Amino acid sequence: MFYRKRTTQGSKVVVSLSRRTEPYFYAERLAALLLARYPPERVHTVVVWTKFPETVLLKLRTVLSMYSQVYVHLTVTGLGGTLVEPRVARPKAVLAQIPSLIEFLGDPRRLRVRPDPLVVFRRGKEFFSNLETAAQVIRTAANMGVVTFSASFMELYPKVQRRLLRRGWEAVPLTPEERERVWEKLSAAAAAAGTVLYGCCVPGMPVSRCIDGELLSALHPAGERCRVDKAKGQRALCGCTHAIDIGWYNMTCPSGCLYCYANSSV
């Protein structure tokens, strides 16, 4: 529900579109829902989560242009076009659109690139992993102006494990020492490029905010404030501030990502 109470934190809402649904495939429906429930005058920032730059640059561009601020989480695992993400574009094609995204958003700080999740899969004698390619994603995106990144290690939810087993796949677990080495390498790649890598709900890492009310307030074109209290219903290690998500779980997503936790079947 829209947050109506006037406070020093501001009364305009942050809308998340969406942690639950890839908006590329439901752009028309989500655009109609956004305008109907949260018209521009009620919204501080629209936060878009997607693997497809076209979601913002084409499908939702007209609607998003009505809002005073848009922040984008662009997921680029480095596995697009493989059996792990069969109907996601290859990383080179996605990364090439970053300059256009930054131009639309008006500030590189309004774009965060996510080589997320970090995975290792095995199918028979074949291995599929982005532990190496994630560093290249960070370096390439940083050269295009991106200043912040987020990553995490895949959580093997029961429905994901069942999906993998049905298809003859298995997730290869990493020891704490292996995870630490991977994280050190990715952090070093980010630091060498003058950027920052945040852990998204990574045990042992500082709590971070993918939706950060303080940052969104600082970046707002009119200097307007939004709520900065912690979001309810998120994981214990999630530091995100209040936002309203307008997506849906268990919507059919044609991307076919094997690790997807949002859908019961892929």
UniProtKB/TrEMBL annotation:
InterPro entries: DUF1848. Pfam families: DUF1848. It comes from the Bacteria. This is DNA repair photolyase.
